[in-house]
Amino acid sequence: MAKSIELSNVTKAYLEEYQRILDKMIQGMTYVTITCSISENFIKQIIPHQVAAIKMSENVLRYTTNIPVQNLALEIIKTSTETLECLEAIQNRCCIVQNSEYELYEYMCAYKEITQAMFQAMCAPPVSNNININYLREMIVHHQGGVRLAQNVLRFCICQELIPILRCMIDTMCQQICDMEKLLDALQDCENC
Asked: Which residues does the UniProt record annotate as the domain DUF305 (predicted)?
């Protein structure tokens, strides 16, 4: 079991805002009125996820002086905003594509399993007073969940306009996860010096 660390006032302020963002994301992704359209359900469920990525990145930008973390946060804000705009643009058209009850059940079972694992990992206590390390750990888990959610929806008959957005989301988040893992390793190495 990890020992608890004494948090600085700056870390506490950062984490309080992170917790507000996380609570709003969990609520937004959990309490969605489910329809017979997996495409529509996914869009409504993933929008709070994308908004959280933007808000989490804006939160770290208030505190960090680390240039690679700043650049990464700005990139995540840009790509998440673009994804959000694409999803909102097709939302009303995608609800036309309907799915069977069985498909809906399969989709929702996987969705619940993925989101519960992501929420649990994102709620884990901080490991450091280093806000950059905390942000990267939180965002890696967030993005891994996003990739799994996008892969899940691609297993079903969905709106054709949604498919290229999902593929772009997966590619972007996978690249960002790779960048974040490298940056996290470097920051943790420095902290252990």
From this structure: 41-184
C-alpha 180/C-alpha 136 separation (Å) is 6
Assessment of whether the complete model's pTM goes beyond 0.70 = yes
Residue partners of 143: CB distance under 8 A and separation at least 6: 53, 173, 176, 177, 180
Q: Which domain holds residue 75?
A: 9-23+35-191
Closest of 180, 98, 113, 124 to residue 152, by C-alpha: 113
Distance CA 101, CA 37 (A): 10
Q: How far apart are CA 126 and CA 107, in angstroms?
A: 32
Q: Per mean pLDDT, which range of 15-24, 88-97, 122-131, 184-193 is the poorest?
A: 184-193
Instruction: Assess if residue 169 is contained within a domain.
Output: yes
- Read off the CATH number of the domain in which 53 is found: 1.20.1260.10
Q: Return the closest-CA partner of residue 112 out of 81, 149, 139.
A: 149
List the one residue out of 79, 17, 21, 85 whose CA is nearest residue 52.
Answer: 21
Q: How much is the pLDDT for 125?
A: 83
The pLDDT of residue 138: 96
